[in-house]
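Please decode residue identities from the backbone states below.
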């Protein structure tokens, strides 16, 4: 299925809807100093991808259940359903809406788990949008975004519908930007991901102030490529042997394209472990793959459904 052609909802019945939960990249990621609450503020440039999980939601007089399957499912599963972000999103929505309904959520996992691609957050955002579509008394976009902010730093962007956006604070402040032309992306993913808490714990070098970017900083792929950076690259290679090697591979691939006069980015996404190279379609080199790895080819998304 070409997910780029299905960015909204397919509603087969008033009590059932389908959403596509798109993965994301962080093209810029700066981690600010730790707050008294224990959380770190961030500054990040988000880019949505065509790669997506498929989320089917039905509501009605039945048990509240979650079922996940698909090629990206880890061998050991996803753990307790109650801790899954999709379940947490459903509980949060129905509590906020004071809507006592049963539900069944079925997720076809295409986004690698624990790779810094926002798969769990994308599923949560898709669930919120699905419930908003099905609810007898919808919450409205403002309340929905506030709810997303309680679930995780990636969820507001993935809910927002923006293909490209600058986000800050804890990721809950989102400024949509004009989408850039479609680019090809090669994702190098690993069987073992990175624990986000461990990555933050290892990150001692944190910025104390925000950066003032020029107004046209993210207006072209050339300017974005010049600013692309991820603070987690300072620590994640020491936590993951695969990243230690393959991050250098994607950076070298990006440098080769840049030398040819083509904008390109080779970076770690989020807190890892996925490494990626982004460039013009048809120009990305073949990167090969090691044991326990997958290379997923996808593209940047230029149109996403709005709230």
């Amino acid at each position: 299925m070409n997910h780029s052609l299905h960015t909204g909802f397919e509603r087969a019945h008033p009590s059932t809807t389908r959403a596509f939960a798109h993965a994301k990249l962080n093209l810029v990621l700066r981690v600010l100093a730790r707050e008294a609450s224990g959380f770190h503020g961030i500054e990040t440039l988000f880019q949505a991808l065509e790669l997506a999980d498929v989320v089917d939601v039905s509501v009605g007089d039945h048990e509240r259940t979650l079922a996940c399957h698909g090629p990206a499912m880890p061998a050991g599963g996803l753990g307790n359903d109650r801790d899954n972000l999709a379940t947490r999103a459903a509980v949060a929505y129905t509590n906020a809406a004071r809507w006592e309904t049963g539900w069944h959520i079925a997720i076809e996992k295409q986004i690698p788990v624990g790779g810094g691609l926002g798969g769990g957050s994308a599923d949560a955002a898709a669930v919120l949008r699905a419930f908003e579509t099905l609810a007898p008394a919808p919450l409205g976009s403002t309340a929905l975004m506030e709810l997303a902010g309680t679930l995780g730093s990636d969820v507001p962007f993935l809910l927002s519908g923006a293909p490209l956006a600058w986000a800050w604070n804890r990721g809950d402040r989102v400024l949509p930007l004009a989408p850039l032309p479609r680019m090809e992306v090669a994702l190098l993913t690993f069987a073992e991901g990175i624990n986000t808490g461990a990555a933050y714990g290892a990150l001692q070098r944190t910025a104390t102030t925000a950066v003032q970017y020029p107004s046209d900083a993210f207006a072209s792929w050339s300017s974005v490529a010049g600013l692309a950076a991820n603070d987690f690259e300072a620590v994640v290679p020491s936590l993951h042997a695969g990243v230690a090697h393959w991050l250098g591979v994607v950076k070298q691939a990006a440098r080769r394209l840049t030398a040819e006069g083509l904008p390109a980015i080779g970076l770690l996404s989020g807190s890892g472990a996925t490494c990626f190279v982004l460039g013009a379609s048809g120009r990305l080199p073949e990167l090969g793959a090691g044991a326990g790895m997958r290379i997923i080819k996808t593209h940047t998304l230029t149109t996403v459904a709005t709230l």
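Observation: The first strand starts at residue 10 and ends at 13.
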